[in-house]
Amino acid sequence: MTIRYSDYIRTLRRGFHEYRRTHFGDKPELFKNYNEDEPVVWADLARDLNVMTPPCAASLREMVVRKIPRSKRHRHFGSMQSSQALVQSTFGVIEAFNRFAVLANVRDEEGCLAFGPSAAAGNLTFEKQITTLGEGPKGATSIDVWIGGAYRVAVECKLSEASFGTCSRPGLRGADPKYCNGSYEYQGGRTTQRCSLTGAGVRYWNFAELAFGWSPTIDHRPCPMRSPYQLVRNVLAACVSSDGAFEENSGHALVIYDARNPSTFRDGACEMQWVEARSALRLPHLLRRLSWQSFLRQLPDDDICNWLAQALRDKYGLVA
User: Fold this and answer.
1) SS (H, E, C) the chain
2) pLDDT attached to residue 33
3) How many CB atoms lie within 10 A of CB 241?
4) Residue 80 in contact with residue 39, Cβ under 8 Å?
5) What span, in angstroms and rounded, lies between the C-alpha atoms of 221 and 185?
6) pLDDT (0 to 100) of residue 194
7) What is the pLDDT of residue 1?
8) Do 40 and 16 touch, CB atoms closer than 8 A?
9) pLDDT at 245
């Protein structure tokens, strides 16, 4: 039976309302709305509660809550549907309670180390701003969870998103000098650079052939980077070193997703973008994926991991 995306979202939101009633039923002042078909949104002063932590000292909870500064919270962080809050709850607890060995042992869909060989070292950064791709501070790629060190992993976490991010340039007005018609070709008065991003100093096409086999010296109609844009950026973020070299053995990008989300099914938007990026990669292992459900199945049996599995089940309906 085919599950419609709208039905998935409706089920997810009803689960959030049930979570609200069960855990905060006597505190209506903490929320903005109660319509069962709309997102559950925390009141502005209660948004920290969207980050879950096990019963612990206030200092440990504060450590988790502050892992992502308020200035870096996404626009919809206050919604229970926020994947950023899910990330902070999960990886913030893993870090605060020193469960890095969990990450070291998790395998992806193909049996590879999902979080790479250096995960046990615990070198995690949240909302990591990438500086190696020439994007500039305002447009810099931001990685949900970054595992640094000699081997780098760029972790992108999704929940209910309908697709991965695409290139924004084709969405601009045609008169805008940054506009692109969706093809990699000379256009809009540009005679030296086919890509308007390249003209602005962004270096994606410096590495496109090394990573994906896309030659920067010929036209591409449509541009192969347009649809899997976010996935391409994450691969390059992980594999381009601080000195500007493409290192195919020093990192990979990982996507964590909700296996219930129809956009990840065959012919779903996320799945099609994934196939576009993965099939083009010269080395497919540079892009890996793991469902939240599989991640939970691989958690060890200890007090913190058991709490985390139960918390993600109660709030998000994620079942190992």
Assistant:
1) CCCCHHHHHHHHHHHHHHHHHHHHCCCHHHECCCCCCCCCEECHHHHHHHCCCCCCCHHHHHHHHCCCCHHHCCCCCCECCCHHHHHHHHHHHHHHCCCHHHHHHCECCCCCECCCCCHHHCCEEEEEECCCCCCCCCCCCEEEEEECCCCEEEEEECCCCCCCCCCCHHHCCCCCCCCCCCCECCCCCCCCCCCHHHHCCCCHHHHHHHHHCCCCCCCECCCCCCCCHHHHHHHHHHHECCCCCECCCCEEEEEEECCCCHHHCCCCHHHHHHHHHHHHCCCHHHEEEEEHHHHHHCCCCCHHHHHHHHHHHHHHCCCC
2) 81
3) 12
4) yes
5) 8
6) 96
7) 57
8) yes
9) 97
Contacts of 266 (CB under 8 A, 6+ apart): none
Residue 35: predicted pLDDT? 83
Spatial separation of the C-alpha atoms in residues 206 and 214, rounded to whole Å? 10
First to last CA, the chain: 21
Tokens, residue 69: 């500064």
Which pTM does this prediction carry?
A: 0.96
- The whole-number pLDDT of residue 188 equals 86
68 contacts 127 by C-beta, under 8 angstroms: yes
* pLDDT given at position 177: 87
pLDDT score at 122: 87
Tell the residue number behind the tokens 């855990």, with chain if given.
23
| pLDDT < 50 regions, the chain | none
Give the C-alpha separation, 190 to 171, whole Å: 18
* Adjacent-strand bridge partners of 254: 155, 288
Predicted local confidence at residue 175, as pLDDT = 86
